[in-house]
Design goal:
Mean pLDDT of chain A: 90
Oligomer: heterodimer
Largest interface: A-B, 25 and 22 residues
Shape of chain B: rod-shaped
Structural class of chain B: mainly alpha
Mean pLDDT of chain B: 80
Distance between the termini of chain B: 94 Å
Low-confidence stretches of chain A: none
Strand content of chain A: under 5%
Helix content of chain A: over 70%
Largest sheet of chain A: none
Helix content of chain B: over 70%
Number of helices of chain A: 6
Low-confidence stretches of chain B: none
Order of helices and strands of chain A: HHHHHH
Radius of gyration of chain B: 28 Å
Order of helices and strands of chain B: HHH
């Protein structure tokens, strides 16, 4: 637990997110009612997924430049943790949609795009599983990773905004002031995003440390 | 007497508006807040969170130990 101040920060922020997120005031809105609080939990899942996939993109580039297996291991660990968060984001989104949009899956453009994005990254895991040779696996999956990331950006940030959607702020920019995220909610939402980010990174680094240990052990024989 | 009559008249006139205003508000978990049951939910979630964090911290320590050994 050395250099662990950010883990402490993560615990504090998430404790605040859970307690403050449930108790602090939120605007009264029809249909949404209290479910608007899901904003503190559902949305940061996707943000964390994007962050972890970006890290893994960075490690893929590092691997391709250096050929160091360590970066390959780190990259795949980031994707594994990112996929965990994407599944959580998808499931929480469907649960929320069931009670506000009426059904868990309404072929909303953002739902479809994020499902596609998840499939692309699941394919990455399957691709890795299919190649025995370590060097080859690392190289091919790093190249695939770069393309997957290049696909994720338009899928999540461009295409859903060009069409009408049930998600707020679509057909436009959902960032910052575009929709009614009032000041009370900001006080929880921003710490929540940071807290979930840190939790995602924590889980991913644990995974990558285990994988690195395994790599070292295999190489020492 | 006249004042009371005037006040009650105003109240009768305003009452439907007040009722209307209340009907227009979105329904929130006000009952749970008034009888304190929301705190039960907060407690349950805080417990689950504490459990998950304890698990992560333990895992982190174990991995650190392994890293030092190798």
């Amino acid at each position: 637990m050395r250099r662990s101040w950010w883990k402490v920060l993560c615990i504090i922020l998430l404790a605040y997110t859970i307690i403050g997120g449930l108790l602090l005031p939120v605007p009264r809105q029809f249909i949404l009612n209290e479910t608007v609080r899901n904003l503190y939990y559902h949305v940061p899942m996707w943000f964390t997924m994007i962050l972890l996939f970006s890290y893994s993109f960075y490690y893929a580039l590092r691997y391709l430049r250096t050929g160091n297996m360590e970066y390959d291991v780190k990259g795949v660990s980031m994707i594994n943790a990112g996929l965990l968060f994407s599944v959580l984001g998808m499931v929480t989104g469907m649960e929320w949609a069931k009670y506000t949009w009426g059904e868990p899956w309404s072929n909303d453009p953002k739902q479809l795009a994020s499902a596609l994005c998840m499939l692309i990254y699941f394919a990455y895991i399957i691709l890795r599983g299919g190649i025995k040779d370590e060097e080859k696996r690392a190289k091919i999956s790093a190249v695939y990773n770069v393309f997957a990331f290049a696909l994720m950006i338009p899928l999540l940030f461009v295409l859903p905004r060009m069409v009408d959607s049930l998600h707020p702020g679509n057909g436009g920019n959902p960032g910052f002031n575009a929709y009614d995220l009032d000041n009370n909610m900001r006080k929880v939402f921003y710490p929540a995003v940071l807290g979930w980010y840190l939790l995602g990174v924590w889980i991913a680094t644990l995974q990558s440390r285990i994988n690195l240990l395994q790599l070292k052990k295999e190489n020492s024989f | 007497m006249r004042k009371a009559y005037l006040l009650s008249l105003i109240f009768i006139l305003l009452a439907p508006m007040l009722l209307h205003a209340q009907e227009n508000q979105a329904e929130m978990a006000d009952t749970m807040r008034s009888n304190g049951k929301i705190y039960v939910v907060v407690l349950v979630l805080a417990t689950i969170f504490a459990g998950i964090i304890a698990y992560l911290v333990r895992l982190d320590r174990k991995i650190t130990k392994l890293e030092k050994e190798s």
